[in-house]
Specification:
Elements lengths: L8 E8 L2 E7 L7 H5 L22 H19 L1 H9 L8 H12 L11 H19 L1
Antiparallel strand pairs: 1-2
Helix pairs in contact: 2-4, 2-5
Length: about 140
């Protein structure tokens, strides 16, 4: 069995009465000739892998975990209750957003919160701080 392999870009997704219609854009040099020859209505088994900027597959689980961690970190650093939590625990001198942000980056071992997108160990440390803060906040 011959498989078709090509790179494409998602350009549209819409829904009709039979389901979803996915529109892909392919460079003319990338279109497999067999695909051009098949009639409209041909069925395919499709396997797709999203690529990052270096042509490597993206692990969707890590991508979503990283985005969630980034949102949590930003939310914590803007939360005056988190500042109070850190201040009461003598982690920061002044209960401010800047001090909380600096403390969190140092605690997580990252130069920027954006690094949470790719740093699994920092995400684990963030989860523990977030859990402890929520416990403190609920008491």
């Amino acid at each position: 069995m011959k498989t078709l392999q090509f790179e494409a870009i998602k350009v549209a997704l819409k829904q009709d009465k039979t389901g979803y219609v996915l529109t892909l854009c392919m460079h003319p040099d990338e279109i497999p000739e067999d695909l051009l020859r098949d009639f409209v209505g041909s069925r395919y088994q499709v396997v797709m892998v999203r690529l990052n900027g270096t042509e490597q597959p993206i692990d969707r689980q890590d991508e979503f975990a990283g985005e969630r961690a980034l949102r949590i970190a930003a939310m914590l650093c803007r939360d005056p209750r988190f500042w109070e939590y850190l201040h009461q625990d003598n982690q920061i001198m002044e209960p401010t957003e800047q001090e909380a942000t600096d403390w969190l980056r140092e605690f997580l071992g990252i130069p920027s919160r954006v690094d949470l997108r790719t740093n699994h160990e920092a995400r684990i440390r963030l989860e523990s701080v977030y859990t402890e803060f929520n416990r403190w906040n609920e008491s």
